[in-house]
Write a structure and sequence with these properties.
By secondary structure, this protein is α+β, with helices and mostly antiparallel strands. The protein has helices spanning 3-10, 18-38, 67-78, 100-114, and strands at 45-46, 49-60, 81-86, 92-99, 123-130, 140-142.
């Protein structure tokens, strides 16, 4: 399975149980919110809940393994916004914004990919805390 297929699977592709159908409905609502953001609409709350923004510090095997690229693609696939950056000490810092499920989907996807069987070293979340949301932010991108 390639990375793109893997991310599609994480984003809701799969079986036909009622949980899968509910997840697909929620994902469609998240995608609709992302499309609204692209049009310049920026609600502070959604039918799925209020927006949050979480600051993360990741350590472990996080540089030189496509961590920022994977996080960017996962965030974009679920409509989360924010940024991610390599730090000089070998760690990675990120801020992820969206409804809680969007933020959790990015972290869960990273955990499945990097802490699963593929990478022996994996990563740890050294710090995670809420910060103020950023209005009129429309994408997730690596910063340098």
């Amino acid at each position: 399975m390639g990375l793109l297929s893997f991310m599609r699977e994480l984003a809701g592709g799969g079986g036909g149980t009622s949980d899968d159908k509910l997840m697909k409905q929620e994902l469609e609502q998240v995608r609709a919110l992302a499309e609204a953001a692209e049009r310049g609409e920026q609600p502070t709350s959604t039918p799925l809940g209020p927006k949050i923004r979480r600051h993360y510090l990741f350590t472990g095997t996080v540089q030189g393994v496509g961590f920022r690229w994977t996080a960017t693609n996962l965030a974009s696939s679920v409509g989360a916004t924010g940024w991610i950056r390599n730090e000089r000490d070998g760690s990675v810092t990120a801020e992820i914004q969206g409804i809680r499920e969007q933020v959790d989907a990015v972290i869960d996807g990273l955990d499945r990919y990097y802490n699963g069987r593929r990478f022996m070293g994996g990563f740890r979340i050294e710090r995670a805390y809420d910060v103020a949301t950023v209005p009129e932010e429309y994408d997730f991108k690596p910063v340098y």
